[in-house]
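We modelled the chain as a single entity of 645 amino acids. Its sequence is:
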Amino acid sequence: MAVAQTNKKKKRRRKESLEHKARRIGVALAVFFAVLAADELGLLASLFGTTGAVYASFVLFLVPYAIAGHDVLQKAWGNIRHGKVFDENFLMAVATIGAFAMVLFPQTEPHMAEGAAVMLFYQVGEIFQAYAVGKSRKSIAAMMDIAPDFANVERDGGLAQVGPDEVAVGDVIVVKPGERVPIDGVILEGTTQLDTAALTGESVPRHAEAGDEVISGCINMTGVLRVRTTKPFGESTVSRILELVENASEKKARTENFITRFARVYTPAVTGAAALLAVGGGLLTGAWADWILRGLTFLVVSCPCALVISVPLSFFGGIGGASQIGVLVKGSNYLEALSEVDTVVFDKTGTLTNGTFDVVAVHPADGVREDELLELAAHAESFSDHPIAASVRRAYGTQVDQARVGDAAEESGHGVCARVDGREVLVGNAKLMAAHSVDAPACDVVGTILHVATDGRYLGHMVIADTVKDDAAQTIGDLHAAGVRRCVMLTGDREEVAAAVAAQLGLDEYHAQLLPADKVERVETLLADEEGHHKLAFVGDGINDAPVLTRADVGIAMGAMGSDAAIEAADVVLMDDKPSNIARAMRLARKTMGIVWQNIVFALAVKLVILVLAALGVASMWLAVFGDVGVAIIAILNAMRAMKV
């Protein structure tokens, strides 16, 4: 609750500050253009004479300059006092004060208008930057709103409203329609539709009923739920997401770190170059006013704002865009690495497959109906808790009448034997059939074969298998289309099962019957094959995948159903468990990196040209304004494209 309120207050303060600054700059612009119009129309000259008009314009242009730039001057002075001299505030202060100081050279054209304009348009660029940052924060800030404010806990026969962090594991909470689920748990009573859009990006509500797990941050849309909590608030899904979001900006990409280091060297270097240009040219030619103006113009255009602002903004926009589709990237360094991936390695169970058993084929014997086979098998398995038995009952799809069943017994490792409607029914593998002298034919379909017989007569068989996720095949195709060279599957499953899944999905290679240590070894081998900047990504969901997720260049975890250990070890988390979002995130990462390099090349190229022109005395102060503020605004607009998914 405190986290949510703090973030809302910060958001409100940021908005008020931006609105106040926009009003202030608006007033300064109005005054500036009024003074500029009076000067250009000759009103000042008619009132004060030619010489007096210069000093009048000096005083009048100081008004919008002071309104717009007083905070820049304060920051520059404060930084100088603390030993942090060379930044954009220092460059703006020196260049603009220098432009006003040109009034001391009567033989030169005055440049007060340019000095005021530089400060004004720099501040307009700052407002534009603040707006762009706010825009890019929007999707990530929306994540901060998923923090629940309270939990309704059952205590002493009633409901007590407490902070989520006060709820213990095992407590029963009540979630009413319209409220957020405050803590992860299992539904005890109730049926509802859950809005998971803030977590997964999925617009379609999810059905939930008694026995289903629910994760914190979802919105309960319809029915009242009683939920038994399974985690403390600090370890719940919503807390993990907030932690990931808050820490994402701390992990910078190589490109972002390079720009930061570049700016630290670049700014003092160009300041020195501008001083050398002004002093050196003045000493050589004696035309001090001309060379000082060149130095000031050089200073204005050299400001690295376009790079310092647009590069982090591009990464921030990319991370925000990914969050819109339910993909959490833990930092811009991982976004950059994701853009360079050319090998994707998948775990099978729970990643490419659903991780649950289902009946994938029913083959009745001659004269036996499919529904009859399923009915007998479901009733015989009605007392078993085994996942295979549960899959048979799901395939039957009708309520089992346990009154029809008697003498049910499991034969460990083989199957079950029960009496259904007075008949002996066997459901199990070929060994069970052989033990009861029943002939069971082989089946070519890959999976667990469940034979059914009654009173010694063979009725047919079913194939039980872990089903492939609906979007798994699309994922492999999309990854290849996105430029991924190899898609590899690692699994501890049997060779024939792995081969069938690999063929069905169109994987480039697979490796079966692997232990967790074998997976790490196999990933090490694949990593050794990578060349240059190419990276390897591993996608997994289980606790045994954590070592491999850590070892890969980019670890991608299935978030909604994945284990805590896998999510903690991963660099990227898929909140909706859809592997198809990997390709979307990869395309977004590559788009973001493309935008980053577009801004770097564009900003440096334009600045270099204008810097040369400034040194030659060709570039005016107005061109310098475009080289600084204009380039920054164009770069910011380009950076905002990273947010569009």
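As a brief sanity check on the tokenised model: The chain has 20 helices and 22 strands. Residues 1-16 have pLDDT under 50 and may be disordered.
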